[in-house]
Design brief:
The complex is a heterodimer.
Chain A (H helix, E strand, L loop, with lengths): L1 H4 L10 H4 L1 H18 L1 H4 L31 H37 L1 H16 L2 H12 L3 H10 L3 H15 L2 H8 L4 H37 L11 H8 L8 H31 L1
Helix pairs in contact in A: 3-5, 3-13, 5-6, 5-8, 5-9, 5-11, 9-11, 10-11, 11-12, 11-13, 12-13
Chain B lengths: L1 H28 L6 H4 L6 H10 L6 H14 L12 H6 L2 H28 L1 H16 L2 H15 L16 H35 L2 H8 L4 H23 L1 H14 L5 H10 L3 H29 L8
The chains are: A mainly alpha, B mainly alpha.
Chain lengths: 283, 315
Amino acid sequence: MSDATSLPPIAPPTRRRVTSRAPRTAAVLLIALVVLAAVAPLIAPYAVDAIDLANRRAAPSAEHWFGTDELGRDLLTRILYGAQVSLAIGLVSALLSAAIGAAVGATAGYARGWIDDVLMRLTDAMLAVPRLPLLMIVSAVLQPSVPLLVVFVGAAGWMESARVVRAEIMSLAARDFVSAARAVGATPLRVVVRHLLPGVLSTASVATTLAIGRGILLESALSFFGVGVQPPTASWGNMLYQAQTTMTSEPWLAIFPGAMIFLTVLACNVVGDAIGAGSDGTS
Amino acid sequence: MTRLIVRRCAQSVPLLFVISLLVFALIHAAPGGPLSTYLENPNVRPEDIARLRQAMGLDRSLSAQYVAWMLAFLRGDWGYSFADGRPVLERLTERVPATLELVGAASLIALALALPIGVFAATHRRFDRLTTFLTVAGISLPVFWFGLILQLLFAGWLGWLPSSGRATFDGDGIGDRLAHLVLPATLLAAVFAAAWSRYLRRAMQHIIGRPFIRAARARGVRRTALLLRHSLPNALPSFVTVVLLDASIMASGAVVTESIFSWPGVGSLFAESLVKRDYTVLMAFLMCGSITVMVLNLIADIAVQLIDPRTRDVS
């Protein structure tokens, strides 16, 4: 019996206390990154395209904290400007995914029947296609500009939130307040937008936060293969693309941009997890 | 069981249709269509383009082209690679064993890590804190970057392991092969170990909170049995589904891992073909990737029925 008493409590208490510090740090980090990216022209130590051929491939030093690249451009400056592109792609593509996902999920979940079948089959089909290779082909074929790239990344990531939103809408639609709204003559559009979507917000925001991280990862992977953001525009991914060939001689060119991607995605996932845990506890 | 398989196969037909339309539309959306590789080549005259267009049937209506392509695809005639003129099917199949070796090794490593981590994290608070951090970090890792770092560290600076390839040119023996496998398999396994242990931990926590576990504990069932005989089997069906459904992410991971470590598998073939705009190979890869994912979905359904008697048809 002694080993049975050492078991943990049967119902694990909410994990809020355990994780309370990490999400706050992560959120602060994310906000700091966004602010730094926004004021990059003011704080960057050098001009973004300042070529200094005398100082090519310089190791990190007091003048160049993160070193310089093969054209002598300051890496810290490029990372700050790259943050604008990478963060913007992550944020906007996630919002786009959320919007498409909410539209598809809400339509399928509320309409049910054949509309639901068709939309969910489409979702399944999109989920079955390997995402990164698909996006790699699309960007190789169409060679998109940055705004178009955002659209592609967003359009490739709506399936998860569509599923989540559909499930949530279905359970909400069976509740009395929905019948009440319908009884007083609300149109389906009004029922969904005014009465159902607000209830889905917390679940959808978890999916969206996670999608920011995924969008940044996708952009950087695409750029890493040379089919994403094209030079001279700096993004964290295409800095890695240029750095991979000189990995042994100038490792800092790869280490810093990659570390930024890692930190940002980590922060998004920690915040997303925390929102998820919070909404689990209240429902 | 047979009814399930038949039903799921029938369901996957429209799915495949949608995917094939998507793939077909993609190639035709390219500026210049499938012949765009020749458009930029000054040695190819405009009249040659016109001749090629007619010879390849590209002057027919899109729907006729789609039907012809689909029928040929079903027959196993996947066209010829633009890069070296060999049949696409041949180029793909010769790369499959290497990919299976890599993905198989990575899945084993990931499972070997995820199962104990998931179970222990669900029950041990302090261990959970550590693994929660590690697994969130794991799913946030940019695979390509982590691969470069591993390469730099273990092949470059420490010199312990070979940096690329599947075997040394004149090397032989299982030791050489294993040494080449370690880094790419670890890289591919890292993300999945993290994702799967997170999932298993959640599933286990849900089970452990249920009354029947409390009842079993009250009866004096031992701790190990409580976890491994009463809880784990209940968490397994959904875990198996998640593992098998991650196959499409595995395909993306294989593309990245194989091209970083020059692993001669299907994934690096894809990356090479992308650089060369070898559309026939790219299309075949996308179709095969999607079909594989759907087959694994089906296997997941069957596996769940085998593991979990509650989901079996009563008839």
